[in-house]
Amino acid sequence: MKITPRSLLAALLLLTGLHAQAQQPARLELCVACHGPQGNSQNPQIPSLAGQPRIFVENQLVLIREGLRDIPTMKGVLDGLSDPDLIALAQYFAAQKPAPMPGAVDAARYQRGKELAAQSLCGSCHLPTYQGREQVPRLAGQQEAFLREVMLEYRDKPGPGRDTVMTNALRGFNDDQLDDMAHFLAHFGKQP
Fold first, then answer.
1. Are 161 and 68 in contact (CB under 8 A)?
2. Are 47 and 142 in contact (CB under 8 A)?
3. In degrees to the nearest 10, what's the CA dihedral of 83, 89, 91, 97?
4. pTM of the predicted structure, to 2 decimals
5. Fold for domain 26-95?
6. Cα separations (Å) of 184 from 18, 46, 155, 169?
7. Alpha helices of the chain — where are they, by DSSP H?
8. Are 38 and 48 in contact (CB under 8 A)?
9. What burial class does residue 163 get, using C-beta atoms within 10 Å of its C-beta: 0-12 exposed, 13-18 middle, 19+ buried?
10. How far apart are CA 119 and CA 114, in angstroms?
11. pLDDT tens per residue, the chain (192 residues)?
């Protein structure tokens, strides 16, 4: 068999692809099936994991695996994964670039949400850019419907695996205010 530059390049690409595939975290294909390519969700009800702080993702994966956070669609997905497996998944998603949220910005809702987020001091924990840090999630560019649902759950149904600080922070907000905040956070940084 004669080795040509083309066949050498093809072999190199094949080996590189196999090596990259071997380096992917366990069950990554199941994660991206719901959370989207590189963790950028295409489903309004499912959070994007791209760019989330690594420690936040690690903690959530452990809580879900151990049954301390009840997410019916996640039941069984993490069964049998070791702590190093969960760490590898968290590292992967933390390293991915969040995609901008599609859709038009409603200027009035954006402004109301911005004012409510400032009034609630959301930027104190989630940072002024709402990118999150350590054990605090990224809110900027997250799915709007997901954000609203999570805020409703924190406000109305605190439970295991949920931060009580968030329950207190959202107390007193009505549904329309949560809608506005979710709109602002989902489109944070866009010009209304």
1. yes
2. yes
3. -160
4. 0.83
5. Cytochrome Bc1 Complex; Chain D, domain 2 (1.10.760)
6. 42, 18, 18, 17
7. 5-23, 28-35, 54-65, 83-95, 107-119, 122-126, 144-156, 164-170, 175-186
8. no
9. middle
10. 9
11. 555 545 444 444 444 444 444 468 888 998 999 999 999 999 999 999 999 999 999 999 999 999 988 888 998 999 999 999 999 999 999 999 999 888 899 999 999 999 999 999 999 999 999 999 999 999 999 999 999 999 999 899 876 656 778 888 899 999 999 999 999 999 998 877
Q: How far is CA 188 from CA 54, 76, 93, 142, in A?
A: 21, 34, 20, 9
CATH class of 107-186: mainly alpha
Nearest alpha carbon to residue 173 among 146, 191, 155 = 155
Residue spans per domain, the chain: 26-95, 107-186
Residue 92, both tokens: 């992967």
Please answer whether residues 117 and 181 qualify as being in contact, where contact means their C-beta atoms are separated by less than 8 angstroms: yes
Say which amino acid occupies 80. Answer: G
